[in-house]
Design a protein that fits this description.
DUF6497; 9 strands; 149 residues; seven-stranded mixed β-sheet; signal; two-stranded antiparallel sheet; globular; single chain
Length: 149
């Protein structure tokens, strides 16, 4: 079951056991486009990174906000961006896009998870061919504090 709740100019998925795809036209740091998925996010590595969805997840017993990105250059076959470089990109995304997003939409999650995937994989699904990198952060005092999984 998919649920949408209005939240400013975007729909925010509140999920306990469900996941929703969002309209991301008003994400801070991205141009106001019919679909923010058309807009690349600038990262230090220069790889093309595109925001695909934002999920507000209450199911771990506290609020987590998950920012999911497509990053084709992390692919194990033919990709040229490794995990060490991708983690720098994720840290940059947290400070430059995630923190302003949380402030704009008055969200105070316990954790933020940023994921990069070389292909679209539905949340909670498995794709053995996909390369995916994840990092978790605790937003605190306008900083992203890395949290080891």
């Amino acid at each position: 079951m998919t649920q949408f709740a209005p939240h400013g100019q975007i729909g925010v998925a509140r999920r306990i056991r469900t996941v929703c795809r969002l309209c991301l036209a008003a994400v801070p740091g991205l141009a106001a486009l019919p679909s923010a998925a058309q807009q690349e996010v600038a990262v230090p590595s220069g790889q093309p990174v595109v925001l695909s969805e934002v999920l507000v997840d209450d199911s771990p017993g506290e609020t987590w906000v998950r920012f999911r990105f497509l990053a084709p250059r992390i692919a194990r076959d033919g990709g040229d961006v490794d995990y060490d470089v991708a983690t720098q990109d994720m840290e940059h995304i947290c400070g430059s896009l995630v923190l302003p997003y949380l402030k704009t939409y008055d969200l105070s999650p316990a954790r933020v998870v940023i994921s990069l995937s070389d292909r679209d994989v539905p949340f909670g699904s498995s794709d053995p061919q996909a390369t995916q990198f994840f990092e978790a952060y605790r937003p605190e005092n306008a900083n992203c504090i890395w949290e080891e999984f």
